[in-house]
Structure formats: C-alpha cells, structure tokens
C-alpha cells in the first residue's frame, strides 16, 4: 500500500525534498509576520468570493476572519516562527482537522489555484520563497487528499462492523 | 462544544503554555540526536515488553525498530531539529496517523506511565528539559484521546448516512 507521503508526491508531482525545502531557511524571519497575514487575507478573499458554490461552501462554517487567522498562524509556526497556532489550538493535526471536509482532488486543485493567484498578487514575498511555499502547499494539499481517502476506507469498515452488531447495542 | 485543545488541557491538567514550553528553547540543539534516540529506545523497550497484552497489542503491527525511529524523528523535528520525520513520512498529522488505534484515556495513561519511566531512566536529558517534555507528552496524549473521540462521532454519523442510502448505491 502506498503511504500518505508517496501519494502526496505522486499526485502533486512534488518530491518530499522540494516540499520541505521550506525548512532550509527560516521563512518567518526572512519575510516577517505581515507577509503571512497579507498572503492568507488575499487567499481567503478569493476563496470566500469564489464563483463556484461547491468550493465556497466547504468554508461556510467559519468566518473569513477565523479562516485567515488559523491559516497564517499555522504557516508562521510551520515556517520557523513562534508556535502561535499550537498555543491557541493545539497540534496542527492536519488530517484530523480536515476530517469534516470533502478534500477531493478537485478541491485540492481549486485551493492551489487560489493560492497560486494569491502568491502572484502579494509583493512582500520574494520569488525563491514563493517557489518553496508553493511546493509545500502542492504537496500538502494532496497529502490531505490522501488523508481524506483513508477516512472513507475507515468509515466503510466501521459501518460494516456496526451493521454486524446486535441492533440493541 | 469543547475544542481539542480544551479537552487536552482539561484531561491532562497541562495548560497549553506549559505544553508548548518545549518551544522556548531549542531542545534538539541542547540535547543532541543521541538523547532522543536513547529516550525512544528506552520507551519502546518498555512498551514492547508490557505485561498488559491489551496495551502491547496496539503496537503489534509495527516493528520495534520502526516505532523507535518514527518517534524520535518526530520528536527531533518538533523540538527544533531537522525535519527528519516529514522528509520521510510527510506531515506528522498526529490525529490522522493515530486513527487505526484505540487511543483511550486508559491507553494514554499507560503510554505516559512508560514515558515517565523512560525519562526517569535516561541520563542525558536535564531536569528542566524532562519537565518540559513531559508536559508536552501529557497534553499531546490527551489531545489524541480527544481526536479519537471525534473519530467515533464522525463514524456513527457516516454510518447513519450510509444506512439511509439505497442498497444499490
């Protein structure tokens, strides 16, 4: 069976070494907090205005402000900054926290399209950092698609187990 | 509804600020790789020799060598060292990767008991670092118990949905 990492690399076309090249330099120290806030704000402005209702609706249970903060705090923490996300919300637990959402190949593609446009729009991130971040995002998006498929497998097994139990249980 | 973080703090008795005090100093630079290898080796020697079959069996699908490596690579990465874990396996995805296992309160208590004994046994970790690490472990163990309960909720909803669908679907 392919691992989550193997699936993420195959589907994204990004080698793990390139995905985690974000760790070669401290991007938080290089870019500063405001660059991350600007990126996530630009990204979620696009997401919440998406003309595709199926995609927009994935985010409908969160306010845009919360979505922005959750994202930039995670990025800051993962890219060399203070653990803002974990102090407030705990471990990133990326697969667990995405469990309620349908993280399909199509949704990953659309998420990445908005993120590419957001990166193209912001002016306070240099080209090399943009390349590293986009490789990380591509790999991570498909890592989560792989995590989503695992969820579906587990659920169908669990349902079969449940169906075989006595009704009164 | 209580968040994962709130449940982790309530059940472990560890405030998030104490759990993530591991980030105040770079523990990897302070302790070095061998200290992490020694800790995980000591820990899993205890786990794989546990007299309680119910606990030992949780780990029966992995070799002890793999379990040791997965653990120390994650600890190294999370505590300031190189991203050894992610380069090999991808995001830690703690809740997602624990999905196959019954992470109950009882299992968390027993995991922590072995880890406390392992920390007490190793000589190359100073007392302050031990305290910080144990707070992180306590909080994380119950964070995963909270994640496990979420899984059960989601599964029962998914099974109800599945049961209401036409059989041919």
Automatic annotation (TrEMBL), chains A, B:
Residue stretches spanning the membrane: none
Keyword Transport tagged: yes
The protein's required cofactors: heme
PROSITE patterns: GLOBIN_FAM_2 (PS01213)
Any Pfam family matching the protein: Bac_globin
Highest taxon of the lineage: Eukaryota
A single GO molecular function term of this UniProt record: metal ion binding
GO biological process: oxygen transport
UniProt-recorded name of the protein: Hemoglobin
Provenance organism: Solanum lycopersicum
């Amino acid at each position: 069976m392919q691992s989550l990492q193997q699936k993420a690399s195959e589907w994204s076309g990004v080698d793990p070494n390139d995905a985690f090249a974000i760790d070669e330099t401290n991007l938080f120290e290089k870019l500063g907090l405001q660059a991350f806030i600007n990126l996530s704000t630009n990204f979620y402005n696009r997401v919440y205005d998406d003309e595709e209702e199926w995609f927009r609706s994935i985010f409908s249970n969160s306010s845009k402000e919360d979505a922005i903060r959750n994202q930039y705090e995670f990025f800051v923490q993962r890219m060399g900054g203070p653990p803002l996300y974990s102090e407030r919300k705990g471990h990133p637990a990326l697969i667990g926290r995405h469990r309620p959402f349908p993280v399909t190949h199509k949704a990953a593609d659309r998420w990445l399209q908005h993120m590419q446009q957001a990166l193209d729009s912001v002016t306070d991130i240099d080209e090399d950092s943009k390349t590293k971040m986009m490789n990380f995002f591509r790999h991570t998006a498909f890592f989560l698609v792989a995590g989503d498929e695992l969820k579906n497998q587990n659920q169908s097994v669990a349902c079969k187990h449940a169906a075989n139990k006595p009704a009164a249980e």
